[in-house]
Every structure is written in C-alpha cells, then in structure tokens.
Design brief:
The structure holds 2 protein chains of 2 kinds. By secondary structure, chain A is an alpha/beta fold. In chain A, 38% of the residues lie in helices and 16% in strands. In chain A, helix 3 crosses helix 4. The relative contact order of chain A is 0.14. Chain B has 1 helix and 5 strands. In chain B, a hairpin with a 2-residue loop joins strand 1 and strand 2. The chains are: A alpha/beta, B mainly beta. Chains A and B meet through strand 4 and helix 3 of A and strand 3 and strand 5 of B.
C-alpha cells in the first residue's frame, strides 16, 4: 500500500514541501521542484507589478493545476495582516489550504504565538484550512490543533538559517501529541537534517533556502527527496536501540 | 469633449481613470489578466465573479495582488 499522508482531506505521496523563493530564475525553480518530487509548493502573495505588467509569472512556470500552491503569510507581523493576506490568496487561487505564519521580529523570524493563535481561530471560522508555522513547543502545538490548525509546522531552527533540527526532544513530543500532520518548517540545511526530521516521526518537511541556496539547487532538491524518503523508511522500520558500548556483529561461538 | 476622470489609488500609487469603468476594466487597463489576480477595494475583497459588475468610484483604494515565489 502506498505510504501517503493526508492534510485537510487531501492525500499526498510526497512528504516534501518546497518553497519558491530565492531562486535565480523561474526555470531553475521549476527544475528544482520537479527534482524534489514535491506535490505542494509554498508561494507568497504580493502586489502585482503595475510598472511592468508583462513580466513572467510564477504560474507560467509552475502549473497550479499540477502542483498545489500553498499561499503563505511571510512578512506578516500581526494576525490582521496575515488574515488580510490569506483572504486575498483565497480569492487569487480559489482554495482554503493555506500556510499561516505570523512573525514576531525580523532578526530571528521567530513566530509570535499569541498572534498566530488568534489568526488561526479567525481563519478557521472563515473556512480556511491553515497549516501553521509555530515554535517547537508541544503546548503551543496542542493549542493550535484545538483552534483548528490542519497541520502543525514547528521550526527546526530559524527560517533561512540552515542550522538543522535544534531540539529533537520537542519535535518528538509534538509528533507524539498531535492528531494532525506535523511538518518541520524551517531550519533544514542539508539532506541529513531532513532525514532527522522524518526519523523523529514527522509527516513531512517544508524547506526553501536549503535547496534554493545550494550551489546546485536541482541536485540538492533530489538529495532532499531521497533524504525525506530515507528518513521516513527508517522511522517506519523502527531503529535499533542505542548502547553505550560495542556489541559484535559476528558470532563469538566457533572462534578459532 | 474629454471624458470625466476620477482619482483612485492602486497598490499605494495615485492614478486617474475614466469615470464609470468596472474593476475588471481597470485590471485590463493596467495590463493584468483579471483571472490571475485578486483585488481588494477599500479593504474588502472583490470576488472575481463580480469584477466586471463593480464600478470604480472616486477615491477608491485598491490592492491588486498575485502569487510570487516565496518560502
């Protein structure tokens, strides 16, 4: 049976969600998305370029009919800004599945959980299905789930930092406590980081910079695809126990 | 005789348009495909299905957005 995961009633095979920011060109971006195998990409909502309306659009390169667009609220620092952005996104795209992030400060881009929770409550009332970027705090995760978040997306490390999963204990606690999908969002720097997230039992990983800022983004996208799959399989397989000392793999009996 | 124009704001900038045009016509005048954008008028969403029916009024404030690359 296929190993799928479901968010807001929609099943996906790929457990890797990739961003569409920071790429050198739309062509490179589209090639990286293809290599990653991602079925969902995050996108931002911004003013159209009135001075030059003929510029190529993201939708010309990544087809929203084939790849699910997950509109984000990047750059929003209050619940009101985020809600306003997502209302526009819903009108532009016509779908309810969105990524909510309400930032607390520019230096760390850490989420403001009070505003995030408030925005989640309003969005759910308005029929949105918010996947929510949050701190790696199992209590905050629980509160978001109770408020109607369709997925919990704790940071592994600050956005764009590439530092890897900093607190495996809290990510694991969030996974154990959640009834909705948990995806590590932010902090992945290289393939092994994605595997770690999956080995902890996360349903998926969301990343942008780790692929976009790699020297060869398309190759890194493929590496991330394999890393997510490897981590998922390792989680399903159930890892061996850890020991403090050696345990020989060859039999001791019959030694000459 | 010159047609009467009205003053509006679009994405933070002033603009004069012919009196009586619809929001859909405004988008086309800006070189935009109405099907690829979302429009907010005076902080209220204008549903795409009504873009051709809503008339641009003097003093209106528009935000017109689309999807761009982001993480």
């Amino acid at each position: 049976m296929a190993d799928t995961w479901t968010v807001a009633g929609r099943a996906f095979t790929s457990r890797l969600i990739v961003g569409t920011g920071k790429y050198k060109s739309f062509e490179e971006n589209a090639a990286a998305v293809a290599a990653s195998g991602a079925e969902i990409v995050t996108v931002a909502v911004r003013r159209v370029n009135i001075a030059d309306p003929g510029q190529p659009l993201l939708t010309d390169h990544i087809d929203p009919k084939k790849i699910t667009y997950l509109p984000n609220t990047a750059g929003c620092f209050t619940a009101e800004e985020a809600i306003r952005t997502l209302r526009l996104a819903r009108e532009a795209g016509g779908w309810e599945l969105v990524k909510l992030e309400v930032l607390g400060e520019a230096r760390t881009l850490y989420p403001d959980m009070r505003e995030t929770l408030r925005a989640t409550e309003t969005l759910v009332k308005e029929g949105f299905k918010p996947m929510v970027y949050c701190v790696d705090d199992p209590i905050a995760a629980k509160q978001l789930e109770e408020a109607g978040a369709v997925a919990i997306m704790p940071l592994g490390a600050p956005i764009g930092s590439g530092l890897g999963i900093q607190n495996r204990v809290t990510i694991r606690l969030i996974v154990e406590g959640a009834k909705v999908p948990v995806l590590v969002d932010a902090g992945v720097g290289t393939a092994s980081d994605a595997s770690v997230a999956m080995e902890l039992g996360c349903d998926g990983v969301l990343m942008n910079t780790a692929i976009a800022e790699a020297k060869d983004p398309v190759t890194m996208a493929r590496a991330m695809k394999l890393a997510v799959e490897a981590g998922r399989l390792a989680y399903l397989a159930g890892r061996m126990g850890q020991r403090r000392y050696a345990d020989p793999s060859s039999p001791l009996a019959g030694l000459i | 005789m010159d047609q009467k124009t009205i003053s509006i704001r679009v994405n933070g900038g002033h603009r004069r348009v012919i009196d009586g045009i619809s929001v859909a016509a405004l988008a086309l005048e800006l070189g935009l495909e109405p099907a690829k954008v979302a429009v907010e008028r005076n902080l209220e969403i204008v549903p795409r299905s009504t873009l051709a029916a809503v008339r641009v009024e003097d003093g209106d404030d528009y935000e017109i957005v689309t999807f761009v690359g982001g993480g």
